[in-house]
Amino acid sequence: MRFVFKTDYQQDIKLFKHPGYYPWYAALAILLLLAPLVLPTYYLSQMTLICIYAIIAVGMMILTGFTGQVSLGHAAFLAVGAYTQGWLYNKGVPSVVAMGAAVALSAAVGVIIGVPALRVKGIYLTIATFSFAFIVEEVLARWESVTGGNSGLKVEDFYFFGIDIAASEQRFYLLALAFLVGVMLLAINLMRSPMGRAFVAIRDSEVSAQSMGIHLARYKTYAFAISAALTGFAGALYMHKIKFVSPEQFGILASIEFLMMVVIGGLGSLHGAIYGAIFMIALPQAISIAKDYLPAYIGQQTGLQPTVFGLILIGFILFEPLGIYGRWMKIKAYFELFPFYRNAMFKRQKTYMKSDRLK
Amino acid sequence: MTQVLQLTLSGIALGCVYGLIALGFVLIYKATETVNFAQGEIMMVGSFFGLTAGVTLGLPYWAVIIFAIVVTAVCGMLIELAILRPILGQPAFTVVMVTIGLGFIARGVVTMVPAWGTETHTLKTPFTGQVIRVGELVLAGEQVAIIAMTALLCGVLWVFFKRTKMGVAMQATSQNQLAAYYMGIPVRRINTLIWGIAAGVAAFAGILLAPITFVHSNMGFIGLKAFPAAVVGGFGSVPGAIVGGLVIGLVESFAGFYAPEGIKDIAAYIVVLIVLWVRPNGLFGEKLRKKV
Amino acid sequence: MTAFFKADDISISFGGVKAVQNISFEVGKGEVFTIIGPNGAGKTTIFNLISLIYPPTTGRIFFEGTDLTGLAPHLVAAMGIARTFQNIELFEHATVLQNLLIGRHNHRKTNFWQEVLFTAAARAGEVAHREAAEEVIDFLDLQRYRDSYVAGLPYGVRKVVELARALCTKPKLLLLDEPSSGLNTEETDDMAFWIDDIKNDLGITVLMVEHDMALVSRVSDRVLAMNQGQMLALGTSKEVQSHPAVVEAYLGKEPEKQAA
Asked: Which chains touch B (3 or more CB pairs under 8 A)?
């Protein structure tokens, strides 16, 4: 295992803990930048979607993975972002301004749902979030003058600072990638600062966070607002990517998908958010490819996809609770320590059932 | 006046179904402190078993009910043994995710079963189309049957929990798992049994619901409306679950008639948000805090 | 002259159970003040009242002349009061260093935007927080656990980490809830040294709940004994230990009286 020998405080705060990481991240950057030159449009379009989903996943991670507040209503924030963007853009507002509005409005909605969240915990919070999402979905379906109701809302194009982004998949991909990198940087900064640590403190022990001087209500509201703002931002991009949105895209299943993304990716790690997004976009593709090789009776079933989703989710929780990120850490440790890796190295301590009712 | 009575009756009937699903949540929550997000899907599977018994096997209605309850209860116990026991003692959130996964699997697998599939099925009951006239009031037989059968089931459960040794042991377990364990109560076996009972109750709810909504693979989503019922009742309270279900059922029924279009579908969620705002622990909830 | 810390006639009951009844005491600056008593005496409840986890039914608590009762709970830390917990309430899924840095929360000087953009101010703040945390790490010899996750640490070390986290807040008054419970003799010895050092070198006043009478006698200036929510005796460790009411609370009355 690489032992990072620290010599000054700055080192702890650095983006990359060790110079050994530079070549790998450089290689990744080159690969990602070369992708538009070599990949066919369809795959590029999927990668754009991954970038958008990854932004959502970062938002989910901040709220659920770091602050420990489980939300099953994030599709509502995505919807608020997407509809705000679509409506304003169609009114002739420049896309940058519209995005700003989408982010601000989503954050505001996040604060609104965050306020009752301060009073309720655990499962009650989860129920409050999905109840709220149902209400938003219904509002979208009924407020026809703005949202177009069940027939949906369309945008024709996507001009960003005068550049016609929608004209080429390459441009859209690069823009989404740039936004994702920006969001990642902001999230990393947040998590290496006092506010990010306060979130983690709230997740692990509210009583003790409070005794350290952390204002629980204020920081939970911050977490909701930041998470909603990022998700709303992703929604603005999603609007232009999909070009057409309707209320049923933002139902409970979408919210569950977002939650699955962070669980499968690995709760409590920003890498995990990216892995989760890749997984969530790649899985349906993989299933549709696999269909051709399966016996016709199974391959033709519409129920195949939910079944596989469910099996994978349960599989991860039973066998790899740290998610893809955890698996990656183990593989890395295995090679770095070869031949000294022990199976027990990442073994978790068994603890008594802690009563959640008392949390 | 008749209108109000009719709405009340249909609200109560619907509320009974919500209440029964919520009862499943509450039983599992009380026993294991975890929330089963697949309760609605278990109900859906239960009503498919009912369908098989009634249509494919041609059993009479009472046998359909027993068949569905027993088979679904066995499924519930198998789920607990195979999937939930290995993660016993992990945070509640883990179990929530596992049961969400179970819900996905149930929705997927049901469509692959021959004779079930993706179509919508009807399950005939002896009460279908029957009406009971009380003065001016016309009561649909199905609704009266739902109410009567729910009352019957509640009575059976009440006797079980208060009068049988097993029931009392279950109550003890739900109050303090560790203490129950020290008293020699087989906590693990009780958890399995609780899952069986919750699944059986869900199947019963599914059979009752079948004539109203038809049987199809997405009927489990109605389970999401049982969450508000459980919360209104205070999640840890068994009678509360039924009361909560009735509250949600009545609100929905009246909202459908008096409120603007669209409110009916979200009435349950509006109610739950208000309840959480006013009384964060539900109407019958116990107030507890963490000991430090 | 106002007392450094003063509990004035505090009581609390939980649904009929009088957990703490009319307790009054003062702690002088620079003192180590210990509360002893059998299980269920209400010792930890007093701590929870000071941390404002529950509001007292009656009475008031003053710290440096300010009335704490009625403040928002998170402000207690800003006043200069830090605490540890009986059953350890650390941030399990964070490293020791992160735990200590969370203890620095009150000394946060940057706002959200500075942190998200990681401006020079945020960077300087991080360095300052780390310097402060390192001082505590040196003080309590935690160097080798700096980057370990709390979840994997042995009990004794966690106990020290919790003390370290409390010290990181730079408190004026430190509340220690059973600092030696679950520690072996050697670790208890270390703890006694540290408590002495905290008092003498860091000049922090200590209010402590403790069962280990050897430790209590060794470090405490004054001791308050209580039982079933009521005050039994107050004085030096020796005086309190020989007080008849205290002996009775621990050892029981004469057999025939006890039966009555």
From this structure: A, C
User: How many Å lie between the alpha carbon of A359 and the closest alpha carbon of chain B?
Assistant: 5
Q: How far apart are CA C135 and CA A9, in angstroms?
A: 13
ipTM score here?
A: 0.89
Residue A343: predicted pLDDT: 63
Strands C173-177 and C5-14: unpaired
Q: What is the pLDDT of residue B284?
A: 63
Is the CB of residue C68 less than 8 Å from the CB of residue C52?
A: yes
Q: Does B288 touch chain C (CB under 8 A)?
A: no
Q: How far apart are CA B84 and CA B258, in angstroms?
A: 44
- Pick the residue from chain C with its C-alpha nearest to B290: C53
Check if the beta carbon of residue B50 is closer than 8 Å to that of residue B222.
Answer: no
Neighbours of C87 (CB within 10 A): 11
**Chain C residues with beta carbon closer than 8 angstroms to that of A195:** 108, 112, 115
Long-range residue pairs from C130-133, CB within 8 A, at least 24 positions apart, any chain:
C130/A9, C130/A12, C130/A13, C130/C97, C130/C101, C131/A9, C132/C104, C132/C107, C132/C168, C132/C170, C133/C97, C133/C100, C133/C101, C133/C103, C133/C104, C133/C168
**C84 pLDDT above the threshold of 90:** yes
Q: Which residues of A touch B98 (CB under 8 A)?
A: 313-314, 317-318
pLDDT band at C1 (very low <50, low <70, confident <90, very high): low
Helix, strand, or coil here: B33?
coil
| Gap between the Cα atoms of C221 and C142, Å rounded | 28
Nearest CA in chain B to A259: B97
Chains in contact with C, counting 3 or more C-beta pairs less than 8 Å apart as contact: A, B
Handedness of CA A14, A18, A19, A22 (dihedral sign): negative
CB within 8 Å of C45: residues ≥ 6 apart: C12, C19, C20, C54, C229
Q: Please name every residue paired with C32 in a beta bridge, in sequence order, or none if there are none.
A: C206
CB contact under 8 A, C106 and A213: yes
Q: What's the pLDDT tens digit per position in A22-53?
A: 888 888 999 998 888 888 989 999 999 999 99
The predicted-structure confidence for C25-64, as pLDDT tens digits, reads as follows 999 999 999 999 888 888 889 999 999 988 888 899 999 9
Is C126 in contact with A192 (Cβ distance < 8 A)? yes
Which of A135, A298, A317 comes nearest B98 by C-beta? Answer: A317
Show residues of chain C in contact with A186, CB under 8 Å: 116-117
Q: What angle do CA A60, A66, A67 make, to 5 degrees?
A: 90
Substitution target from A134, A142, A298 for chain B, most B beta carbons within 10 A: A134
Name which of C54, C115, C147, C165 to mutate to probe chain A: the one with the most chain A Cβ atoms within 10 A of its Cβ. C115
Q: Of B28, B23, B18, B117, whose CA–CA distance to B79 is shortest?
A: B28
CA of B29, closest CA in chain C: separation in Å? 25
Please work out, in degrees rounded to the nearest 5, the angle formed at the alpha carbon of residue C14 by the alpha carbons of C11 and C15: 125
**A287 CB-side CA count, 13 A:** 19
Judged against a pLDDT cut of 80, whether residue A299 lies above it is answered with no
Is C102's CB within 8 Å of A222's CB?
A: no
